[in-house]
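Box 3.1. Reading complex inputs
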Amino acid sequence: EAQVTQNPRYLITVTGKKLTVTCSQNMNHEYMSWYRQDPGLGLRQIYYSMNVEVTDKGDVPEGYKVSRKEKRNFPLILESPSPNQTSLYFCASSPIVLAGVHNEQFFGPGTRLTVL
Amino acid sequence: AQTVTQSQPEMSVQEAETVTLSCTYDTSENNYYLFWYKQPPSRQMILVIRQEAYKQQNATENRFSVNFQKAAKSFSLKISDSQLGDTAMYFCAFMKQGHSGNTGKLIFGQGTTLQVKP
């Protein structure tokens, strides 16, 4: 089954304790992206990647890191989480076609993160 | 920079009736896509419908249709014959089209929570 998976689905942690949220897709998509969802703000892009070893900042990258060592995986790293990073996080992937990033992006199930 | 605005934080509708969710956007681009996503209580993001800006014809998907007014930068979603399973948060989103300067970023509105009442 074609899908985007995220782990963990739920995480409660404390300020300053490094964590990684994994994202994996089995559709051989070049493009992957991370969003965070906050009430009243919708979803905002954190980082994106056009292909292996090609990553760039989105609109809200502060406090986050990413890596893209393999095509299928795009982990989100919070090296020193703070309470303002409490949010719902989504990973998404999409193929890149002649017209650019394809207009249908596939979303993972979301990760609810709470930083105390 | 592009922005997307959904001015209705919450709406409700009786089962089997029709409801329209509003969305406006601001962009200087000529080629782009617009989307409506559904987020049920499971939190999964589900693509409901999409519209390519160069197409004048409004997109439809079964009970879901849009009213795309490019000049007015308006993109509303109409849900006909509302069902209890339509209860969800709905997000309007914008994406630039083409290779040049295209980061694949979806720009989302704030969301509208729709409650379908029996």
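In summary: The radius of gyration of chain A is 14 Å.
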